Amino acid sequence: MEAYKIIDTISRDEWLSARSVGIGASEMPILMGESDWGSNLDIWAAKVGEGVKEDDDNELKELGRELEDAILRVTMRRAGVTLAHKGLLVRSLEHRWCIATPDAITTDGEPVEVKNLSFGFSDEEWQEQIPEKYRIQCHHQMLATGAQRCLFGVLVWGNRIVWEWVPRDELLIRRIILTGNEFWRYVERREQPPSDGHKNARKFLEKRATSEESVELYRDDVDEHITRYAAANSRLARLRSEVRDNEKTRDAAADAIAQRMGAARHAVTADGWEFAWKRSSRKGYTVEPKAIDQFTIKEPKR
């Protein structure tokens, strides 16, 4: 599948404006429920011209963009590929809502996506494959470009580059297409999609509530939603109760161990359990400085 160039992203404002004509790679994981970066209503509002302009002037984003250039160079060098395009906005010819701005496109037409992560990385989680939200982002770029693989690289903790080729998965591509088709119909009709429940969705809806006039809702229209709300709320109440009970049981057991230790601040068992009082200090600021003792339990290594 081919893709054609829309615009070279020399101007940040032009790039942000051009993104409104389709669904971008960073937006698809949100629509598929695999990312907490925002809500589906945030994305819908941006596409129909009701969104809030993005703040790209903060230091965090500025430094992130600067670092991405270095991460990109190292990742491509280690993968043995060369740069053909950088910052190119492309659109799928078959699925015209599918747009993407890969960090780079190689001379073989393969997209490259890089990240700078100072949190959210664990070797155990990434051992089998990259997190699903990044995998979806790579596949969205493959859908836009027609590529069979995407190069993904990440700078971890500022001192380690992790990279891999993400092969094309046609089942995931199909899920992206179905999700994109459904969402874009809401955009074309200027009809809000059902909320995905993200906290940003409630903020979006609150801003639209400007009239103090009360309205009547017909029970037939909202009965399904009331039923779902009541059932979920009841389950949450039970779960919160279970959490409180388990926390009290856990803390009572920890207190019993501390009682057995008496005046000692540290204890061990023959099979490797460790128990200790650890002291942490809090700076003064507007309140008096205070040292806090916390009782810790460390399980033996398996």
Order of helices and strands: EHHHHEEEEEHHEEHHHEEE
Structural class: alpha+beta
Main β sheet profile? 5 strands, mixed
Number of domains: 3
Helix content: 40-55%
CATH architecture of the largest domain: Alpha-Beta Complex
The rounded Rg comes to 25 Å
* Lateral strand order in the biggest sheet: 2-5-6-7-8
- Low-pLDDT runs of 5+ residues are none
Strand content: 15-25%
List the helices and strands and how they pair.
Layout (H helix, E strand, L loop, with lengths): L2 E6 L3 H7 L9 H4 L8 H8 L11 H21 L3 E3 L2 E5 L6 E2 L3 E3 L4 E7 L5 H4 L5 H14 L3 E8 L3 E8 L2 H20 L9 H10 L10 H43 L4 E3 L5 E9 L7 E9 L4
Parallel strand pairs: 6-7
Antiparallel strand pairs: 1-3, 2-5, 3-4, 5-6, 7-8, 9-10, 10-11
Explain this structure.
- The protein is 43% helix and 21% strand.
- By secondary structure, it is α+β, with helices and mostly antiparallel strands.
- The chain has three domains: 3-189, Alpha-Beta Complex (Lambda Exonuclease, Chain A), CATH 3.90.320; 216-257; 263-302, no CATH class.
- The strands form three sheets. It has a five-stranded mixed beta sheet with strand order 2-5-6-7-8.
What's this model, at a glance?
The protein is an alpha+beta fold and 302 residues long. It has helices at residues 12-18, 28-31, 40-47, 59-79, 123-126, 132-145, 170-189, 199-208, 219-261, and strands spanning 3-8, 83-85, 88-92, 99-100, 104-106, 111-117, 149-156, 160-167, 266-268, 274-282, 290-298.
List the defining traits of the structure above:
3-stranded antiparallel sheet; 43% helix; alpha+beta; Lambda Exonuclease, Chain A; 5-stranded mixed sheet
